[in-house]
Design a protein that fits this description.
alpha/beta; 10 strands; two-stranded parallel sheet; 8 helices
Length: 254
């Protein structure tokens, strides 16, 4: 086994950069790509191969907005369930349709595929762009089904306790979800990158070096993240077997 991946225990799929919004706090930027997304079959094959060799404890699908491509999401989570991966998480903004029948169908498909943890991104930034009604319809549909972990997952500006117009609006929105029985996670602190760096500059002290919480130690990879074009760890799953990519991974020399 590759010593740099001896502690690998998590697989993440950034399913697509396509999104139903253009939030000013997004550290990824404009999300100008509208159609590219991971192939569900290729991603499922990766799950089985990696889980067969490594002790994978958790898997996550996110985006962009992953539920623009629900079939791919469900294929990935079905593979994770069949591979006995314990935590099978989805992060979504909940806005992929205005049609409540479709919303219900997608939600039921998520449950059947084995999704057992949903983080719903709602806050002042998301709700500047997308309407609350279809998001609330999605939330109520999830509540009606048997998903063990379901929380709203806000983005906080500066920190959770900071008193600013965005955080205050986020608290109002969270109260609406709390009223129907949906708790809130601790959320994320907005990182000064992408749109956030352009649109919210006045809230950041740029003289203080910041490191993304998602940065890993190259010599001790605990999670791999596959992006929409299939790239992962300087390889590509459409060109090279994932096990070969993992076997040959080595940190870049400085």
């Amino acid at each position: 086994m590759n010593p740099y991946l001896r502690n690998l225990n998590r697989i993440e799929f950034l399913l697509t950069f396509a999104c139903t919004e253009r939030c000013k706090h997004c550290s990824e930027g404009e999300h100008t790509s509208t159609g590219e997304h991971l192939d569900g079959e290729a991603a499922s094959d990766l799950v089985h191969k990696v889980a067969n060799k490594y002790k994978i404890k958790s898997l996550m699908t996110f985006g962009g907005e992953p539920l623009l491509f629900p079939d791919a999401v469900c294929k990935i989570h079905t593979a994770a369930r069949d591979a006995n991966i314990i935590e099978r998480q989805l992060i979504t903004n909940g806005f992929f349709s205005h049609d409540e029948t479709k919303i219900k169908h997608v939600t039921e498909s998520l449950v059947k595929s084995g999704v057992n943890d949903i983080l719903l991104s709602v806050d002042a930034f998301h709700q500047e762009i997308i309407p609350l009604q279809p998001v609330m319809a999605f939330a109520k549909s999830v509540l009606a089904l048997d998903i063990p972990n379901f929380r709203v997952h806000p983005a906080w500006l500066v920190n959770k306790q900071a008193n600013n117009p965005y955080n205050n609006k986020t608290r109002e929105i969270l109260a609406e979800f709390h009223a129907i029985g949906i708790p809130a996670s601790s959320g994320n602190i907005i990182f000064p990158g992408g749109n956030a760096l352009k649109c919210l500059t006045e809230y950041f002290d740029l003289s203080v070096p910041r490191k993304s919480i998602y940065t890993q130690t190259p010599r001790d990879i605990k999670a791999i993240c596959v992006v929409p074009n299939g790239d992962v760890l300087r390889g590509n799953i459409y060109k090279t077997s994932i096990l070969e990519i993992l076997e040959h991974y080595a940190p870049e020399k400085k």
